[in-house]
Amino acid sequence: VLELLATESASASATWGPKYKRNVMFLCNHNSCRSQMADAWLRHLRGDASVGVASAGIVGGTAVKEGAIIVMKEVGIDISAYTSDAMADFRPEDFDAVISCCGCGGKLDGDKESWKKRAVFSDWNLDDPPAIDPGDLSAYRRVRDEAKAKVLELLATESASASATWGPKYKRNVMFLCNHNSCRSQMADAWLRHLRGDASVGVASAGIVGGTAVKEGAIIVMKEVGIDI
User: Which of 22, 210, 223, 228 places its Cα 20 to 30 Å from the Cα of 60?
Assistant: First the structure.
């Protein structure tokens, strides 16, 4: 029971994993600076969004750079206890989005290529602060702020994906077609959304000729069965 309680406690405090609807992995060479700041920003900015986050080094983990710790503390985020981890300790299939922070996507070829084949892969190509900082932490601060802006964009994309009725988050996707997407395909679309329950089936509808407007009659009769289209 003590082991079970310890496992439950660890799961509750985990920053990523199956308790989240979506999981993001930030990668850089050594998980010492850029990926750590991106990781911290996502934890700080995600709010109630069910987005888990982890970070790792493609080459391996080392230690979090003191400069990164200092500049993140300036904006109220403490990363002094963050660990520097190796990508080899994670599985790509556990993540929906993989972000290369350092332009190092080329290092993910060969036996590491599965990391680039997740539903979302992006290479942010952020500068390396330890390599270019003149000694006043200005490079760290610039990259910190650039990472924040990119994380906000990522969260906006994740939010849109979470509310989407179809897409890669579903195991299967169905498209209903008719001439103008104004009646029959709309009703079929609505029924699938209503009836799918927990089934991982996405749905969309479209007009072969083009889209017009949903017919008032379709709206009325679907509303009679409790479905608002």
Answer: 22
Please give the pLDDT value at position 158: 79
Alpha carbon separation from 96 to 51, 120, 168, 194 (Å, rounded): 10, 6, 9, 25
pLDDT digits (tens, 9 = 90+) for 54-88: 999 999 999 999 999 999 999 999 999 999 999 99
Q: Give residue 159's pLDDT.
A: 74
Does position 157 have pLDDT exceeding 90, yes or no? no
Q: Residue 28: which residues within 8 A CB-CB, separation 6 or more?
A: 34, 35, 55, 57, 58, 100, 101, 102, 104
pLDDT tens, residue by residue, 122-140: 999 999 999 999 999 999 9
Residue 184 CA to residue 170 CA, distance in Å, equals 23
Alpha-carbon gap, residue 15 to 205, rounded angstroms:
36
What is the 3-class SS of the chain, one letter each residue? CHHHHHHHHHHHHCCCCCCCCEEEEEEECCCCCHHHHHHHHHHHHCCCCCEEEEEEECCCCCCCCHHHHHHHHHCCCCCCCCCCCEHHHCCHHHCCEEEECCCCHHHHCHHHHHHHHCCEEEECCCCCHHHHCCCCCHHHHHHHHHHHHHHHHHHHHHHHHHHCCCCCCCCEEEEEEECCCCCHHHHHHHHHHHHCCCCCEEEEEEECCCCCCCCHHHHHHHHHCCCCC
Residue 33: pLDDT band (50, 70, 90) is very high
Contact of 26 with 53, CB cutoff 8 Å: yes
